[in-house]
# Entry
Amino acid sequence: MQTDEQAIREFVSKWISASKAGDAQTVLGLMADDVVFLQPGHAPMRGKAAFAAAQSNFHPSSFEVDSQIEEIQVVGDWAYLSTKLSVTVVPKAGAAPIERQGYTLSIMKKVEGKWVLFRDANMLAAVDD
# Structure
């Protein structure tokens, strides 16, 4: 039987794979309906619909992610994980790549036996050349 920690690690891998493939439906299926994303300098993004709307304009020519899970803690049907994350987005039409690095803190909950993203605090900052 798979442990909760293993399931969460697989969740992260699935999120990254789906994101790289541009599979928005899979990514949306990994989050709670009332998900909230926190990002520096921006108002919270609330709900799947807001995430889907933000992603509808996101069509890079390539998208690379390096995610290193630093901690996972599970308490019943709730869990949090912290990651060190590096993202490089290469926009279409030859624009310069956008690189961001930093840490995230994610809260997950188990719904009907499946882990979903409930809250995410993304502290990525632009990488200076």
Remarks:
- Strands lie at 31-38, 45-46, 62-75, 78-90, 98-111, 114-122, 125-126.
- The radius of gyration is 15 Å.
- The mean pLDDT is 91.
